[in-house]
């Protein structure tokens, strides 16, 4: 029994030493060992990849936001999906509660417990003042209904909130009025 333990310890030590040796070999030669010399690399590939970040899920959900060829209700449904995604990713939303447009806009830009940017500041979703806007350039009315439940209202083409042409989705993303 004692010799078996010694044999297992010896094997474990050899595996650990081999792993350390491999790690040292890779790092001694540098992280680019075996790569093409710098003069043979394509500078376009490396700068392009670093300059263009992959679109976030929220940006993909917002594709076509404000497009005049789509119904205005589509914009509010897209925003509702983004807000739902935000709440599914940010578990501790109580530290930064959403009380209206400014709060949601800030949370989507990265002012949230995870410090995760869902939508970058220059996105068409945002007005010049940083608030979320509708397709007519009005601030979206973001009304908290309950915990992690938001209603969205666009003032519509007349730009006056709470009139007959308002576009509204309830906390479940369904048309309301």
Structure notes:
- The chain has 177 residues and is α+β, with helices and mostly antiparallel strands.
- The chain has a domain at 57-176: Glycoprotein, Type 4 Pilin (2-Layer Sandwich).
- The chain contains five helices and four strands.
- The protein has helices at 2-28, 43-51, 57-61, 72-89, 101-108; strands at residues 141-146, 149-154, 167-169, 175-176.
- Strands 1-2-3-4 form a four-stranded antiparallel β-sheet, covered by helices on one side.
- A hairpin with a 2-residue loop joins strand 1 and strand 2 (149-154).
- The radius of gyration is 26 Å and the shape is elongated.
- Residues 29-49 have low confidence and may be disordered.
Please tag this protein with its features.
single chain, 177 residues, alpha+beta, 4-stranded antiparallel β-sheet
Query: Uncertain segments of ≥5 residues (pLDDT<50)?
Result: 29-49
Report the strand count: 4
CATH architecture of the domain at 57-176: 2-Layer Sandwich
What is the subunit organization of this protein? single chain
Largest sheet: 4 strands, antiparallel
CATH topology of the domain at 57-176: Glycoprotein, Type 4 Pilin
The count of helical stretches stands at: 5
Overall mean pLDDT: 81
User: Strand portion, in percent?
Assistant: 5-15%
Helix content: 25-40%
Main β-sheet, spatial strand arrangement:
1-2-3-4
User: What is the N-to-C succession of helices and strands?
Assistant: HHHHHEEEE
Q: How far from one another are the termini?
A: 78 Å
- Which CATH class of the domain at 57-176? Alpha Beta
Apparent shape: elongated
- Secondary-structure-based class equals alpha+beta
Q: Could you tell me the radius of gyration in angstroms?
A: 26 Å
């Amino acid at each position: 029994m004692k010799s078996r333990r010694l044999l297992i310890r010896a094997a474990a030590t050899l595996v650990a030493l081999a792993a350390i040796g491999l790690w040292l070999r890779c790092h001694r030669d540098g992280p680019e060992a075996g790569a093409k010399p710098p003069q043979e690399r394509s500078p376009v590939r490396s700068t392009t990849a670093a300059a263009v970040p992959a679109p976030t899920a929220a940006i993909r959900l917002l594709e076509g936001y404000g497009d005049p060829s789509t119904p205005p209700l589509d914009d509010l449904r897209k925003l509702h999906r983004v807000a739902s995604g935000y709440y599914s990713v940010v578990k501790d939303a109580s530290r930064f509660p959403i009380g209206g447009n400014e709060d949601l806009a800030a949370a989507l830009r990265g002012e949230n417990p995870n410090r995760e940017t869902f939508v970058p500041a220059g996105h068409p979703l945002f007005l010049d003042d940083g608030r979320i806007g509708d397709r007519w350039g009005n601030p979206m009315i973001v009304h908290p209904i309950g915990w992690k439940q938001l209603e969205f209202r666009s003032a519509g083409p007349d730009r006056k909130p709470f009139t007959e042409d308002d576009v509204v989705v309830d906390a479940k993303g369904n048309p309301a009025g």
